[in-house]
């Protein structure tokens, strides 16, 4: 901790001071978790019901507005929740500031790209179904 | 900093096996972590045989038996020998606790390992350097802070408000909880740890304290407070039976209450 420098313990403990943030992150993670409590069982139930169905069935199913909306909401809540969770994991385990920042940015990009891809795919099925 | 293996020079090697006490019939084997900065080299695991008929009932008794009868160079902290001072906190058979209140009857059979509290620099043998731990305790300013001029006689507190402090004020700062926390292992330079946060909460809910907002300001930080991931090791090891994880959850609750 001292690493050869003449810093006092109090200076080390205070560090850069309190960031006065973190509560928003905490609330978002919990609220998205609450949403997932409802969305994930619906999603699992739908997937199990669709076992063995083909592309046409999928298109017909996702063509119904309620299913399309819930699909996008599920993907949104899950990916948002995942982004927050991955952020914590990166902060926990990566100490080097440069690597950490790069991974945090990559995490955001990957999650946004994933969500856009899922959302457009659902929209394609929905619009393709003639909605 | 995440370190899944010990740095070079810190990995304990096989050490000395000390002679068995003569004429003893009830022997038990102890593996104890030894490190002396004066001698240099890696730490080592020394093996001791203890005559359990003469060693008392607690792990601290075993350490005193070894120091008095086998190896006077074994270094460890101890003072009150009754769970009040917190000096003899160490890792006993894989779990942080205080040696003076840990009886051998609570431990499983076989060899018992004794090591210093994990993740902290070792001064010698079973003595960790808790400088950062104490500095973090000081950071939460564990004393009454007020803006109202001090009353002539005393700050009054109702019995109900005093009861709120039960389960918090009993902390003896032994550091068992903080050094058992993986989040603290990885980010102990920034995360305040369960002991400091338990104390922070003790002052946050003190009915006489007027600095609640400032205290919350000082804690609201992704690392200082929110590195707690409710792993619960703290509550599991606390030799006083306290629950720092619950106190931290309540601080988080106060943070939410403040913005909503």
From TrEMBL, chain A:
Cofactor entry: heme
Molecular function in Gene Ontology: heme binding; metal ion binding
NCBIfam families: succ_dehyd_anc
Organism: Hyphomonas beringensis
Pfam families: Sdh_cyt
Entry membrane topology: Multi-pass membrane protein
GO CC, any one term: membrane
CDD domains: SQR_TypeC_SdhD_like
Residue intervals passing through the bilayer: 31-48, 68-90, 102-127
Keyword terms, alphabetized: Electron transport, Heme, Iron, Membrane, Metal-binding, Transmembrane, Transmembrane helix, Transport, Tricarboxylic acid cycle
Functional pathway: Carbohydrate metabolism; tricarboxylic acid cycle
Protein function: Membrane-anchoring subunit of succinate dehydrogenase (SDH).
Protein name: Succinate dehydrogenase hydrophobic membrane anchor subunit
Subunit structure and binding partners: Part of an enzyme complex containing four subunits: a flavoprotein, an iron-sulfur protein, plus two membrane-anchoring proteins, SdhC and SdhD.
TrEMBL record, chain B:
Example of a GO biological process term: tricarboxylic acid cycle
Enzyme class at the top of the EC tree: oxidoreductase
GO MF terms held by the record: 2 iron, 2 sulfur cluster binding; 3 iron, 4 sulfur cluster binding; 4 iron, 4 sulfur cluster binding; electron transfer activity; metal ion binding; succinate dehydrogenase (quinone) activity
Signal peptide: none
EC number(s) from the headed UniProt entry: 1.3.5.1
Catalytic activity: a quinone + succinate = fumarate + a quinol
TM ranges: none
Pathway(s) of this molecule: Carbohydrate metabolism; tricarboxylic acid cycle; fumarate from succinate (bacterial route): step 1/1
CDD domains per the UniProt record, alphabetical: fer2
4Fe-4S ferredoxin-type domain: residues covered: 161-191
Cofactor (UniProt): [4Fe-4S] cluster; [2Fe-2S] cluster; [3Fe-4S] cluster
Alphabetical UniProt keywords: 2Fe-2S, 3Fe-4S, 4Fe-4S, Electron transport, Iron, Iron-sulfur, Metal-binding, Oxidoreductase, Transport, Tricarboxylic acid cycle
Region (Disordered): 1-23
Cofactor note: Binds 1 [4Fe-4S] cluster.
Coiled coil: none
Recorded family membership: Belongs to the succinate dehydrogenase/fumarate reductase iron-sulfur protein family.
Subunit architecture: Part of an enzyme complex containing four subunits: a flavoprotein, an iron-sulfur, cytochrome b-556, and a hydrophobic anchor protein.
Protein name: Succinate dehydrogenase iron-sulfur subunit
Organism in which the protein naturally occurs: Hyphomonas beringensis
Source taxonomy: Bacteria, Pseudomonadati, Pseudomonadota, Alphaproteobacteria, Hyphomonadales
Gene it is expressed from: sdhB
